[in-house]
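Subgroup meeting minutes
Present: P.N., E.W., G.H.
Scribe: E.W.

1. P.N. recapped why we're keeping a running log of single-chain structure predictions: easier to compare across weeks, and new members can see raw inputs and outputs side by side.
2. G.H. added today's entry (221 aa).
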Amino acid sequence: MASLLSTSLPSCLPSLLLVLLQLSSSSAGQFRVIGPGHPIRALVGDEVELPCRILPGKNATGMEVGWYRPPFSRVVHLYRNGKDQDEEQAPEYRGRTELLKETIGEGKVTLRIRHVRFSDEGGFTCFFRDHSYQEEAAMELKVEDPFYWINPGVLVLIAVLPVLLLQITVGLVFLCLQRRLRGKLRAEIENLHRTFGKSWGTQPPPPGGLDVSLSSCHLGK
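Output recorded in log:
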């Protein structure tokens, strides 16, 4: 019997150690941090959300949760002691981040970044800390120009269209002014014709005209 135990114990020892490690890790509250698993894309000026969760899921309300940017560990957002620690943020992220905590009881949180800039592109690290135990997950943000995917022909049209509209507007204004000036000029000419026509029709006979007719009458006699 003793020989049987001595031969079976060495073979069972690795499995026993594995079970003990699993029990100790579960009792210590260990977990893994899971990020999106793929690059997240955002447009300049828009807002973007970076999700992060722990596995297995558990209530993370009492944990320290945060995002920072490597390599200098600039704090993007930090949640500690049940509230956001805005004073520890890097200056370029103050007033631009919000931690969505609706599902923090399930170990799921999301960081929202507003007014995305080109400088936001790159790596982010999300971490959960429970007492002395901490796990992290890396993620990547791709920032794109909203006009990058527009057809070059459309860009040319956008650049040329205002000039064409301006030229058309100036041309229409010129035609309207020309028509008005023509109408006014025609009216002035007609008024001149009327005025001078009346004056010419009522003009008295030239001097000496009456004498000529009288002298011709005397000669006739």
